[in-house]
Amino acid sequence: DAMVIQNPRYQVTQFGKPVTLSCSQTLNHNVMYWYQQKSSQAPKLLFHYYDKDFNNEADTPDNFQSRRPNTSFCFLDIRSPGLGDAAMYLCATSREAGQVYEQYFGPGTRLTVT
Amino acid sequence: GDSVTQMEGPVTLSEEAFLTINCTYTATGYPSLFWYVQYPGEGLQLLLKATKADDKGSNKGFEATYRKETTSFHLEKGSVQVSDSAVYFCALSDRIQGAQKLVFGQGTRLTINP
User: What pLDDT, in 10s, does the model give residues A10-57?
Assistant: First the structure.
């Protein structure tokens, strides 16, 4: 089945130690998104790639970076995680062609910062 | 900016009860509207959507109608099941750099008791 895969499902990192979360998709969608969801809150968009074009939300901290080496893969890098970065990180994809298409979400990676 | 307001939770019902989760939005223009569902430990799944005024989205017994005059998109189900227990998010889509930004409500946790 075509899907959005996130690895790992659970990640523990130390305060200030860089961490990378990965997302892959078999849907061949041209847009990939990263959302941050803190406990009992709504997901919040961090940034998205439209093909190779990176688009950052205005309030996304500089500590968060992303890479998309090809259509299928997208990475979220947190350069110096703080305790406040502990959250579920959701990757989503969509096919954009001038109409409204749904976003397909992966299962998420739960990040713990110790 | 655009925003979504959802009915406060948590909501607890008995099996076979009628469900309504209220959702209202504020937006410039005419966004598409969505309901997403999140089961414990999982990512978000699209439940239903509506792309223009008076459209009704439906899926798995759930329904919601896009009401422009009241800026609402209330979720309803005639007879809930234990398996419907989850967190439900209302969202609108906003066009950004050729893609879509989902703006979510705060989520409503639903628990169905047998």
Answer: 999 999 999 999 999 999 999 999 999 998 888 999 999 999 999 999
pLDDT value, residue B37: 96
Q: Cβ-count burial of B82 within 10 angstroms (0-12 exposed, 13-18 middle, 19+ buried)?
A: exposed
The length of chain A, given as a count of residues: 114
The closest CB to that of B93, out of A41, A44, A100, belongs to A100
Residues 1-40 of A with CB under 8 A from B: 4, 6, 31, 33, 40
Strands (E) located in A38-86 = 44-50, 53-56, 64-67, 73-78
Instruction: For residue B86, list chain A residues with Cβ-Cβ distance below 8 A.
Output: none
Q: Which ranges in B1-114 belong to alpha helices (H)?
A: none
Antiparallel, parallel or unpaired: β B44-50 and B99-104:
unpaired
